[in-house]
């Protein structure tokens, strides 16, 4: 398990990213273009990205999902191939971004945690990240 250290500087950077994301919401049309590779994803824009000591990379954006409407999208990864952040670290980062502190043990077979407002949690093998999609 990798240590997660959240400092005042880390909290301030998270606030800056969240403020930026709130004023630069990604449209559902742009999501389609990103999926098709015609637009860069938020992870390619440093204004949506932060690095936390000991190898954590966090991407936070807000986007308009076609069926759910406006959502938070949080992606957490580590700097070592084949490794994923533990649920406790993802939960602490979610709390830092003001998304609450979920109980990931409540995930169902489809990785949905509907109670608590979380729509979906999934591991992405390409980016080796844990992603959380949650209604704003």
What report would you give on this structure?
The protein has 136 residues and is an alpha+beta fold. It has one domain (8-135). The protein has 3 helices and 5 strands. It has helices spanning 8-23, 28-35, 87-96; strands spanning 49-52, 56-65, 69-78, 118-124, 129-135. It has a 5-stranded antiparallel β-sheet with strand order 1-2-3-5-4, with helices on one face. The longest helix is centred in the N-terminal third of the chain and has 16 residues, at 8-23.
List keywords for this structure.
alpha+beta, 136 residues, five-stranded antiparallel beta sheet
Order of helices and strands: HHEEEHEE
Mean of all residue-level pLDDT scores: 87
Largest sheet entry: 5 strands, antiparallel
Question: Which geometry do the CA atoms define?
Answer: globular
- Find the structural class using helix and strand composition: alpha+beta
How many β-strand runs?
5
Straight-line N-to-C gap: 30 Å
Overall tally of structural domains: 1
Tell me the radius of gyration: 14 Å
Number of helices: 3
Amount of helix: 25-40%
Low-confidence stretches: none
Strand order of the largest sheet: 1-2-3-5-4
Proportion of strand residues: 25-35%
């Amino acid at each position: 398990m990798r240590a997660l250290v959240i400092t005042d500087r880390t909290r301030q950077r998270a606030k800056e990213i969240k403020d930026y994301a709130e004023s630069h919401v990604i449209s559902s049309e742009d999501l389609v273009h990103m999926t098709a590779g015609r637009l860069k994803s938020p992870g390619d824009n440093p204004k949506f990205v932060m690095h936390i000591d000991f190898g954590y990379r966090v991407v936070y954006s807000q986007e308009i999902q076609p069926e759910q409407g406006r959502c938070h999208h949080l992606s957490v990864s580590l700097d070592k191939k084949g490794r994923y952040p533990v649920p406790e670290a993802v939960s602490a980062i979610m709390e830092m971004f003001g998304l609450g502190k979920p109980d990931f043990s409540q995930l169902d077979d489809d990785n949905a945690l509907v109670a608590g407002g979380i729509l979906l949690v999934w591991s992405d093998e390409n980016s080796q990240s844990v992603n959380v999609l949650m209604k704003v």
